[in-house]
Amino acid sequence: MDESERNRSTRRALLKAAAGASAAGAASTAGCVAISTPADLAAANEPRGNVEYFVGPSWLAEHRDAVKVLDARQRDLFRRERIYGARRVPLSEITVRTSTDDGLVPDAASFAETFGGLGIEPTDDVVVYGASVGSRVTRTVFSLLASGHEGDVRILNGGLGAWNGRIGTGRASSPSETTYDADPQEDLWVTREWVANRLEPEIEDDLGLLDVRVPEAFLAAAGSDALDPRQERHGHVAGAVNVHWLGNLDRGRLRDAGELYSLYANDAGLADASVVVVYEDENVDSTQTWVTLRAIGFSDVRLYEGGFTEWSNVEGDHGRYPVETATDAVIDVEGEATRDDGADFTCN
Amino acid sequence: MDSGPVAAVCCQGAGVLSLIDLTTGDRLGTVEVGEHPVHATVVEGRVYVATMGARSVAVIDGDGSVEPLHLGVLGPSHFVTARSKLFVSCTAGDVVAAIDPVDVTVLARIGVGSGPHELATDDRFVYVGTRGSGTVDVIDAEALELVDRVRFGNGARVEGIAVGRDDRLFAIDAGTERLVGLRGVPGAAEMASAPIGSDPYELAVGDRVIVPERGDGSVATFSQELALVARNEGFQTPVDVVSVGDADWIVDRGDARLQRLDAAASIPTPAGAIRGCKTKRGILLSHYDDAAVSLVSPDAGVCWRTDTPANPFGAVVV
Question: pTM above the 0.90 mark?
Answer without folding.
Answer: no
